Amino acid sequence: MPELPEVETIVRELDSKIKNKKIKSVEVKVPKMVNFSVKNFKKYLIGSKIKRVYRRAKMIIIELDDNHYLLIHLKMTGQLIYAKKDGRVAAVGGHPQRGGLDGLPNKFTHIVITFFDGSRLFYNDMRKFGWMKIVDGKHLSLIDKSYGIEPFKRDFTLSNFLAVLAHYSNRKIKQILMDQSLVGGVGNIYADESCFCAKIRPTRIAKTLTKIESKNLFLCISKIMKLAISKGGTSADTYVRTDGTKGGFEKYLKVYGRGGQKCKRCSGVIKKIKLNGRGTHYCESCQK
Asked: What was the pLDDT predicted at 249?
């Protein structure tokens, strides 16, 4: 599933493609993937103009000019594809699809948004776990409040981070980092990488961290996220950038996906375990 850096990369590039475009038509092939009846979903979108595209945690938000918002979650296998009016694909973001991008729409295309200039936005999803929802400002505010503090937002301060650790002091560190209601946008990849950066095992119980360790972890989350965004995210089987290329952060990974390999910091061995059903990686030697 794309995490904060991957979604941020998609949002920035998609905003440059569809901002100020007006929606001409909408096709929904899988009704369960939208939050209204197909008829009402189309009614809300058709004629609306895109004001901007931005993000909250792992969710893409498209602001419309009628005080409504189109929310998109790619989940595990979702993909957004923007094609120019001549049919040429100009942007791709999310999970790479089998068979490439030939013959759009294809069997994985479930929603198509067509703009007045003839360009189109395709939503593909192999497993159909993703969704699109239309909400008003009040509903969006409630959704926003359901997420926790988030890197690069004003509420992501050391004091707020320490408060989260203190309130959930008996939880493992990685469990806290991946709980979207506590820390928004951090997923499996960046939880492992942030813990490695801070020299803390992801299995550590929050209350065992010293103030210095907690501060280091806080700083590492921002540092790792910032670097990942600058490199276009990480391609770990489930993500490609909006230009169809892989994210550039993959070669900077220190522990994620490197179980059994030598640590790049101390030459110890990277261990892979299961934590809450998720593959978790850390160095047995330099993470304590």
From this structure: 81
